[in-house]
Design goal:
- Chains A, B: This is FAD-linked oxidase.
- Two copies of one chain form a homodimer.
- Chain A has about 475 residues and is an alpha+beta fold.
- Among the domains of chain A are: about 100-220, Uridine Diphospho-n-acetylenolpyruvylglucosamine Reductase, domain 3 (2-Layer Sandwich), CATH 3.30.465; about 220-330, Alpha-Beta Plaits (2-Layer Sandwich); about 335-425, Alpha-Beta Plaits, CATH 3.30.70.
- Chain A contains 15 helices and 19 strands.
- In chain A, strand 5 (about 100-105) and strand 6 form a beta hairpin.
- The two termini of chain A are about 30 Å apart.
- Mean pLDDT of chain A is about 95; it is low at about 390-395.
- Chains A and B meet through strand 9, helix 7, strand 11, helix 8 and helix 10 of A and strand 9, helix 7, strand 11, helix 8 and helix 10 of B.
Chain lengths: ~475, ~475
């Protein structure tokens, strides 16, 4: 199969002619990490810049023949170390496979390559009256393929579901280089097992997604934005609970805690924290957006210290209300190095989870700021650590996550499990959450999943030490 | 493991004491078939009436030890022969495991046993302001477990998705008797592979679902029903396309063709067919139901021969409009024995599929009546055959499906595949569609799924000859 007279580097160069294989130090360094901040030990072998399905097949065949691990990479925006390449790995970069092959208004379907930027797809869909609903916070820079690998969530999934709910079918190159097509172009279909759903969220461990048939939805004609300030995080959660009890499915319910509000104020000169200890942003959309916003506003006025409302998406007030949410992460990044955690709990446990996270911060002395997708029970406790401590990495940053931050993260994950939740709502297991996976899944489930993984990848070349 | 001095019947009786095992002819006959009308050859061994998870585990352990096939059964409303038990099989009846264990308003979640009747769950949810969205036409008599086994669709999935979109987690007894819990109680969660999705729609071939954590949704406060008559099926499809282009997600879009309208008229004394050749029923729901109905009505008035509209669900006019759809199947059952087919095509191909089905009826001389879930591109071509022809079965009915009906079905499935669709939108492969599965999936996919099946069930006791 492979030519044994060649070194591994030479063999991959031969498989991907025309400069699409590089072992250059600067190129490898630019592609070896994701946004988790985690630096795996050792050094990847090189970067394969795939342009076609056949490129991907050639790389995987060579990798299997030589037992070389493969790390698949989109834009590298993952937060769990899934795309942080291990020692000796081929980094399979799919960013260049970025064509929107088809956008069908009649079928409300897009057929894309995996490297398409999420927002680019949504923009193309909106130009014809449709929308691609999944909107992870990274959508301006992340790829659809990466979103599929992690089953990315986002803000709008309160109403429109996670990435899984928008994937109708996939083209996947299996570990042995075979190409398989799963799913279909129709909205419904039950012929055979749901392999599409199995590949979504599998974090590059079962195969390499090289194409996707995606469901588009009608772009909502109208969106109304409301914001409210509360005396406490718990009071804001109670308001969300009451809104949901009215029967309204909001398009977004984003919640910032007091520390995050103060960080935004410090960064932007706003004065959020003078109005309360929790900031809630709600959107309603569609034909009933106005009526729904009226009902939401009535709930908020009964519970909040202050309420603001925009007339429509085109209203400058809407952008202003959204700005506080958008400013949160940049504001925290000014303070130090951010570790974005990601747990989800049953909705009734949201306030308790947030209170426990605040206690964990106090107990461990670690700064924790909490943002939540409140309608989904999905919390992002953001741990901010000193940028200059530890062992020292590129640009003076540390490679190491301080022990007290791990301790806080451990307590946060334990909280999620104690409350009947999960250690990852939308970011994935990657490399960094593997130690908690067994506790969440239980032995029977975990072992079944490991056998499943071996079935798809008997030689273990796909993302070793990542995901499951 | 098993006591070899016992016969298989004695062993199962010992595993399920207290009369929960029967080999009585009348009991076996009452439980051996589903609603497909298909009689498999041979005779099942007996019926195991499970009441607990441990009952299911005991049955599977005994079945594996003796190599006895197991057919899992809910209410037996399947239409593809999936629950039609083969020769020598244990029929594992879960209808007695029918408790709603929990219904949480705060988390919008229900935890149920598999034998709960679908409508019973929805009724319980509506009593607290919530709803269980999946509504297969059989919801008054089918079980949640059966819906999960086939990933059942329904009328409302135009807006709320298929069964899969309402299943958060499962308890499953694997072939070896091990119990595994998948998924979670949270809306979001990406720890590990989506085993939940893999079990949904697996038709009893990967394990036995003994518990489910289900997502409930707010019950819509208002529902508006509209009906319209068109000169042709194609004109009605064009109206649906235009409605969807307005950005409105309708809660229901049911379409009856001319032959079905005439059958309803003959059965009920209505005069649908005097108003047109296609009948379209549309519902809008939620806070924007009124505004959305206005927009739908405007489209319908521009294209239909006649339009009717109900004020609300409580309006008697709504029930009257729905009655035509509800009367369709009983009306066809008066004419003869019905074989309900189930294909789905990309929405843009819906009219072409319907036209081709009409041609197939004319070419083969087989009576075919078509009902469609139009928003999903899901068509039910209903083949009606003579009740008295063929080999003769119980109560004078034939066991055999006439050759020309198979021929027509074959052409219908070929049409679905030619148009980029699927041979089953929501009913499953069962026993009767296996011969078309390979053509739909392709060799690589099919073989991968077969290996997956063997991983879960190495001895092949679960639903042999069914599903995949």
């Amino acid at each position: 199969m492979t030519d044994r007279r060649l070194t591994a580097g030479e063999a991959f160069a031969a498989a991907l002619p025309g400069g699409r294989w590089s072992q250059d130090d600067a190129v490898v360094d630019a592609h070896r990490l994701d946004r988790s901040g985690w630096h795996p030990p050792g050094r990847p072998l090189g970067v394969a810049f795939a342009r076609t399905v056949d490129d991907v097949r050639a790389v995987l065949r060579e990798a299997v023949a030589r037992g070389v691990p493969v790390t698949v990479r989109g834009a590298g925006t993952g937060l769990a170390g899934g795309a942080a390449a291990p020692d000796g790995a081929v980094i399979l970069d799919l960013a260049g496979m970025n064509r929107i092959r088809e956008l069908s208004v009649a079928d409300a379907v897009a057929v894309v390559e995996p490297g398409v930027i999420t927002d680019d797809l949504d923009r193309a869909a909106r130009a014809v009256g449709l929308t691609y609903s999944p909107d992870p916070a990274s959508s301006a820079i992340s790829t659809v393929g990466g979103n599929i690998a992690t089953n990315a969530g986002g803000l709008r999934c309160a109403k429109y579901g996670v990435t899984r709910e928008s994937v109708l079918g996939l083209d996947v190159v299996l570990a042995d280089g075979e190409l398989v097509s799963t799913g279909r172009r129709t909205v419904k279909g039950v012929a055979g097992y749901d392999l599409t759903g199995l590949f979504v969220g599998s974090e590059g461990t079962l195969g390499v997604v090289v194409g996707a048939t995606l469901r588009l939805r009608p772009a909502p004609r109208r969106t109304v934005t409301l914001a409210a300030f509360f005396d406490s995080f718990g009071a804001a959660v109670d308001a969300v609970t009451e809104i949901m009890a009215t029967g309204i499915v909001v398009a977004m319910a984003e919640l910032l805690d007091g520390p995050t509000m103060r960080a935004v104020d410090a960064a932007t000169g706003s004065d959020l924290a003078t109005s309360g200890q929790a900031f809630l942003l709600v959107q309603t959309d569609g034909a009933g957006a106005g009526d729904e916003a009226d009902a939401v506003e009535a709930v908020l006025r009964g519970r909040a210290r202050a309420v603001r409302r925009s007339a429509d998406t085109t209203d400058p007030a809407a952008a202003e209300l959204l700005a506080a949410r958008r400013a949160a992460l940049p504001a925290l990044e000014r303070i130090g190095r951010v570790l974005i955690e990601d747990i989800a709990v049953p909705r009734s446990r949201l306030a308790r989870a947030a209170a426990r996270i605040a206690e964990i911060g106090a107990d461990t002395g670690v700064q924790i700021f909490t943002i939540a997708h409140a309608a989904d029970g999905n919390l992002h406790p953001i741990i901010v650590v000193d940028r200059t401590g530890g062992a020292g990495g590129p640009a003076g940053e540390t490679d190491e996550i301080p022990a007290e931050a791990w301790k806080a993260a451990d307590l946060i994950f334990q909280t999620a499990l104690d409350l009947g939740g999960t250690v990852t709502g939308e970011h994935g297991i990657g490399a960094l959450k593997r130690r908690w996976l067994g506790a969440e899944l239980g032995t029977t489930n975990h072992s079944l999943q490991q056998r499943l993984r071996r079935l798809f990848d008997p030689t273990g070349i796909l993302s070793p030490g990542r995901g499951l």
